Amino acid sequence: MTKYIFVTGGVTSSLGKGIIAASLAKLLQARGYKVTIQKFDPYINIDPGTLNPYEHGECYVTEDGAETDLDLGHYERFLNVPTSQANNVTTGRIYQHVIQQEREGAYLGKTVQVIPHITDEIKRRMQLLGESGEYDIIITELGGTVGDIESLPFVEAVRQLRWELGANNSLVIHLTLVPYLAAAGELKTKPTQHSVKTLLEYGVQPDILVCRTEHKLSQEIRKKLAQFCNVNINAVVESIDASTIYDVPLLMLKENLDKTALTKLKLSNKNEPDLENWKNFLGKLKNPTSEVNIALVGKYVELPDAYKSITEGFIHAGATNECKVKVSYIAAESVTKENVAEKLKGMDGVLVAPGFGERGLDGKLNAIKYVRENNIPFFGICLGMQCSVIEFGRNVLGLKDANSFEMDANTSNPVINLMEEQKNITNMGGTMRLGAYDCEIKKGTKAFTIYGKTKISERHRHRYEFNNDYLKQYEAAGMIASGFNPETGLVEIVELKNHPFFVAGQFHPELKSTVANPHPLFVSFVAAALANKKSK
Ligand code: GLN
């Protein structure tokens, strides 16, 4: 029977529920359990696909094409197991389903209400992944903070579900903040007491408290938290600030979070967790023998969460290369023809990021021209790839108005064009080319050296594509298509023949980089940056 762990948050947002959930899942997985994590978000958007990255950080895309919360990225990076449509559910999705059912007459004349209809639908979704029997344990992270009006139906659903599942089949972990008051020189437990009290008002008693803190929790504080929140003292878990999120599983292991959870679920904790590979990764991550500087040129740089998976991809690739990757986030708009050399000074490699819309386009083109002409390793992702095509068109092929149809629908040289199947689409949500597609790699190319095979699969999120009418012209001038979709012929990877490393993909490799499987494009790009640095 599948057991359920619910993770709620109290006191404030941004405590890192996703990291705690992923860390616990990692420990349980390392003990041999089959685990998955799902996230329930209380906002009304059907999914985060239509959200501006400034609102909610990066939109993470799954194999099956779901546009999801960035926490799913953490789940995949930690567990190395793909997530799916079912792993991220929003209030919007719940209501959409219930309202559709109502229109179909499925409620047989009943008044449709939050309780039971919305909570029933939440509970059904919470158990969906459990139906396959594939998982021993399902961890459900509830977005938002306990006490928020919009979280209420989710907390109520958890209360009901715990009752339905029966004793020992579920547990609630409450993540809370234990703030340090410098003036008093003390850690304070009151906010935690209050947030647990709020949960209790809704009928949910947490089993475990995970306490985010900047200082170690003394035995006395632990006892106080336990006593006032009705939990065992060993169920008060310290989650102290870590230098890297990848430390958190080991910190949780030290605090016995996994053991405590297993004991409460009446599951065996006999198998010691096998974390050898994880520790190897951490060893390399923390003991780099060299360092490289990478510029990430993009338009959402004020909020690093907008590029979460790329940042993590560099961490994985850095560890593989035993090299510290220092990423500088450069606002695309600020890069001009005049200052580009200054802006990219000291950079061993440059990545041009994914994105939408015209803002920052010129800056990206300036950066690409500079790295192309100066043999600096370049890595383009999605819009970054499209920009490299525009830049090459304008400055090498002499197509002065070469552009993407996205930026200029009247250009006489749409070297990046709207995809055929996108032409009749009017709705914005969930309508891009999304999820995993096969890609065939040409032998003898840099892409082939990097991947070491001809058949790969990568994840996508875009509406525009390389315009194949121009392919011959590009290839004749030295920009070749080294990867393409075997069914449609869409160009998926371009690279320059006469450049140490100039590779750009229409897909998002960052979404597939995990601790266990750092992405080959990131690994090779970091290696190229390192080689560039050494050659200077
Ligand atoms: N805006 C571009 C497109 O839709 C690129 C998207 C992206 O970078 N994810 O094709």
UniProtKB/TrEMBL annotation:
Entry binding sites for L-glutamine: Y54, G355, L383, G384, M385, Q386, E406, R463
Keyword ATP-binding: yes
Residue ranges of the TM segments: none
Region (Amidoligase domain): 1-267
Protein's GO biological process: 'de novo' CTP biosynthetic process; pyrimidine nucleobase biosynthetic process
CDD domains: CTPS_N, GATase1_CTP_Synthase
Binding site for UTP: S13, K188, T189, K190, P191, T192, Q193, K224
Enzymatic class: ligase
Pfam families for the chain: CTP_synth_N, GATase
Residues that bind ATP: S14, L15, G16, K17, G18, I19, D71, A242
Gene3D superfamilies: 3.40.50.880, P-loop containing nucleotide triphosphate hydrolases
EC number(s) recorded for this UniProt protein: 6.3.4.2
Note: CTPSs have evolved a hybrid strategy for distinguishing between UTP and CTP. The overlapping regions of the product feedback inhibitory and substrate sites recognize a common feature in both compounds, the triphosphate moiety. To differentiate isosteric substrate and product pyrimidine rings, an additional pocket far from the expected kinase/ligase catalytic site, specifically recognizes the cytosine and ribose portions of the product inhibitor.
Protein name per the record: CTP synthase
Species of the source: Sphingobacterium puteale
Gene (UniProt): pyrG
